[in-house]
Amino acid sequence: HAKANKLDFVIYDPKIDQHTLETFELVNALTSAIENNELVLFYQPKLCLEKKKVVQVEALVRWLHPQKGTIPPDVFIPIAEKTGQMNTLSRWVIIAAIKQYHKWRSEGIELSIAVNISAENLKDSEFCQWLLNTVEQLKMPVSALTLEITEDAVVEDPESAIMQLSHWRDRGLKLSIDDFGTGYSSLGQLKQLPVHEIKIDRSFIQHLMSNDEDKIIVNSTLELAHNLGLSVVAEGVENLETLEWLTEHNCEMAQGFYLSRPIPEDELAQWLLSSHF
Ligand code: C2E
Ligand code: CA
Ligand code: CA
Ligand code: CA
After folding, report:
1. What is the ipTM of this complex?
2. Which residue is closest in CA terms to ligand 1's atom 5?
3. Which ligand is nearest to the Cα of residue 263, counting in written order?
4. pTM, to two decimals
5. Is 199 near ligand 1, meaning CB less than 6 Å away?
6. For the stretch 67-79, what's the b/e string if a residue is b when 16 or more beta carbons lie within 10 angstroms of its beta carbon?
């Protein structure tokens, strides 16, 4: 009976019940969140270190839940990925980002936009074709749209990922490898990836000033990327010293709380006017 009791305990653990219930609720709610206009994009500036100018923003999705408040993407993106909802979610993100691009242009603000593409999207050939059609239909200049793809999305099935990425690149889209250094891609794979840019993961940048190993890693990554003809974005820049170090080491772009947190679209125009670097 000991075994059965243990099993009972596991099944009826109130904590697990609660968690399962909440996940279940989120899955159902996410389906209607888009229809109910509960999703919103925030934008985080990326600073070009040579020009000292913001040239691009990264679109980051937020879920403004009517009862639970703001739900961060780290909570609902993994659920969307597991429950087959990434296609719907990413389509919404891309359309919203392109509309925002045009709105800013009409206000005289020239910014390219980066959006995050998940591993699920990359595997979905229908989605990949939809993206190209949509960019054309909504008159988005391809060179003003960067797709950020995590290393892991490529590692799962490198051959088909490389094929898809090449297709996008040939059509003129800009491609970036996100969270670089945290996945398991080999240097050999990096050489084969048809991308323009890598984003060094913030775990290497956040403590850069106090950590000599991080300095060595970031310096070597910059050198490697530049030798391969790739440009580099450092994410997670949280202080001026790090920004200066990156500038001295020829990093192309920086992004992080020191510059700005992700902010709503209507705050960005004001931020652009008031900030000087
Ligand atoms: P990510 O693509 O690596 O985005 C960067 C995350 O780091 C953002 O969190 C941003 O707010 C945060 N961050 C930026 N600068 C700093 C800094 O200086 N210090 C610290 N500590 N954090 C910083 P966020 O917005 O919560 O997004 C988390 C993740 O959720 C993103 O990581 C991305 O993987 C995913 N995500 C967000 N929006 C989307 C989306 O539209 N589609 C997909 N597929 N994934 C998304
Ligand atoms: Ca990203
Ligand atoms: Ca990242
Ligand atoms: Ca990340």
Report:
1. 0.97
2. 235
3. 1
4. 0.92
5. no
6. eeeebebeebbeb
